[in-house]
Amino acid sequence: MAHVATASAVQPGTPGPVGSIPGHGPVTRPNMVSVGTIVWLASELMFFAGLFAMYFTIRGVEPELWDERTSQLNIPFATINTLILVISSVWCQLGVHAAEHGKAHRGDATLFNISAWGMREWYVLTYIFGAVFVSGQVLEYAELVHEGVTLASDAYGSVFYLTTGFHALHVTGGLLAFLLIIGRTFTTRTYSHNQAAGAVVTSYYWHFVDVVWIALFATIYLLR
Asked: Where are the alpha helices (DSSP H) in the chain?
């Protein structure tokens, strides 16, 4: 008696096994790098929440000092600097869009052909805007120190430099991450899914520091 085959042929249209991406598991599984980044940003959110709590607590204790010191802030300058950081998030998201479509750079297109830009060009522009923002904060610090507002001058100086200074450090960390992501586009022949994931999680971080700064700006410069 002939043996009966136990494996049946797969009929057209029959759902096959769930696909997978090398190093990432099934396509239905969340990207672990993205999940880890989101969890880490949640812990960073708690850190900044502590800084906000410190700011409001000390302000409630010494309202007269706040009235005096806030008048020394250059609000128009800080507003322009804030807009620079906000616009950088727009460039960053355009870079993410290019990365998700596998477009690492503009290729043979000219630099002035913006429609042909890839992730590299948009991330370089994001880096430039972020660097300008940090430079603006340094200039503001120099002006305030000249006016006698230092880290050790009083409670306001301590709180101001701690909150804005920690944020500046986070922005600087984001700039270093952009350099890493941009550098990868020069060292590989093909733009893989892993590299696109790196660009995406870097954008998560950048949008995070952007939103935190908007909250800091509203609290320190606008809430009188």
From this structure: 32-61, 63-70, 75-100, 119-146, 155-187, 193-217
**Angle at alpha carbon of residue 219, lines to 218 and 224, rounded to 5°:** 100
Tally the C-alpha atoms within 13 A of residue 147's C-alpha that lie toward its C-beta: 15
- Burial classification of residue 62, based on how many CB atoms lie within 10 Å of its CB (0-12 exposed, 13-18 middle, 19 or more buried): middle
Main-chain phi, psi angles of 25, to 5 degrees: 75, -160
Give the tens place of pLDDT for each residue, 20-29: 444 444 555 6
Both tokens of residue 92? Answer: 């960053």
Tens of pLDDT, residues 150-209 = 999 899 999 999 999 999 999 999 999 999 999 988 887 776 677 788 899 999 999 999
CA nearest neighbour of 203 among 88, 39, 92, 91: 92
Residue 53 CA, distance from chain mean position: 23
What's the predicted TM-score (pTM) here? 0.83
- Rounded to 5 degrees, φ, ψ at 208 are -65, -50
